[in-house]
Amino acid sequence: RGTVEVKGGGAATPFPGTVSNPNANQVTAVDFDVAGEDWSWGAYRVQSLEAQGNVSAVEGLRLRRLELNSDGAVVKIDGNLFGDAQNAAFAVIDLPAQRLAPIIHHIASAASASAGAPPPPPPPLPAIAGTLFVSGDIGGSISSPTGSVRAHLGDGRVGSVKMGRANAFAEITPTRTARFHAEANPAASAKRGAPAQPDPGHLRLSGVLPLPDAEDQSLAVDWSVLDGGMQLVSALSAPSLGTGGPVEWQEGGADI
Description:
By secondary structure, this protein is mainly beta.
């Protein structure tokens, strides 16, 4: 339900007119204010959806409000996109981490289908449980975008390893480089019966990667594993190395 208003005029736009009058009925903008309830896409259910904004053939998409609610998870987006000056913010709140692998697979399959390629196999991700919170912003222009994203996994578990904390940050800078940093810590007592550890250890990964159009093509990647972080290495590598993985970290110290 809602309203959609289509505007047109004589300006040259990508939308065609008629043979006798090429400028007739050309669409230059669309304003929309719509809402819906109880939508579905395959196994996914959307309890409510609200979208307000406009699309311009010159300025791109302006979202005053986009909010989607699905089984307790909320997606929010507002701002300007797909134009010469992008300025948008987004957030994903209370997304069950178990949905992450299927969503990635669906997006990859849709991209492959649009290119006429067969769907790829499911990604080799470990069983991840918990609640994801993601927020970020998009800037720059459609031809040279910038942006950043932050992610936090609460009450998390990777395979059989209970998480104490897991955070990640990434950004694309105006100099066309991608910077990232991620850190995960197992819980103080990650395995049943294991003695409590004052410092359970960590798994850290950070770096700078140049995009194809960056002037500086140098890259740098740093990683660090301390003590219980080896449990996370085992859990994360298990899907790609075989059922259960060839190695399971039991206990001890590590500094890599």
